[in-house]
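HNH endonuclease (Mesobacillus foraminis), 225 aa
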Amino acid sequence: MGRKRLQPNVFVIDTTNHLVYIHLSGRHGMGKIALTDMRSFRKHNISAHTWRCTKDFYVYTVIEGKMEFLHRVVSGNKDPEMHTDHINGSEGEKTLDNRFSNLRICTNQENQMNSKVRADNKTGYKNVNELNGKYRCMIRIDKKKQYFGSFNSPEEAAYCYNIVIPRLSDVYQLNDIPEDSLTEEQMELVHNTVVQRFNKINSKYQLIVHNKFNKWTEKVKRESI
């Protein structure tokens, strides 16, 4: 029995907003709609191919037996060493949004900074792991893991990550920490720990720290040590 033929895509063009909605095909694509901008749609002749998606909602087609992903096509990324990141994140179905304005070519490190929590992470927070009853915040900088402190709770370590990561990347995802989970004393402890760690790391990054969620209050500029 031969392979079942893919249903053709339906392309819906929104001329008002200059967008194109792609009704996907394939086992994982049925009922899913990808998005791109009209300029990219025309430039890359997207309607000439049949588009489907992986189970993680990455949109692709097959050309001469090779998978070609829509986010790499639209971004123009032909460098196998570089990644194309979805700026709005990769969790859920966000990878269906393949507008040029939502994509950026980046390194693997930058891509990881904007990734979701790994499935095998038992703490529920990015860059937080448990060791001997303590919760550590570890962030990779220039291909080397940097330690930013050990704490009594995963929320403290997650808060540590939220302080540091905006200074390392223009695009990132913060840990979603319940607002009532940390006291002022705990946040101050994390703040002081982060500043101490930056004093020990050879860094030119500018560190902005805050004592309440989303309220920046202090700037500490580090020069190369």
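The CA atoms of residues 53 and 78 lie 20 Å apart. Helices lie at 38-43, 70-75, 108-113, 154-164, 184-200. ok done for today
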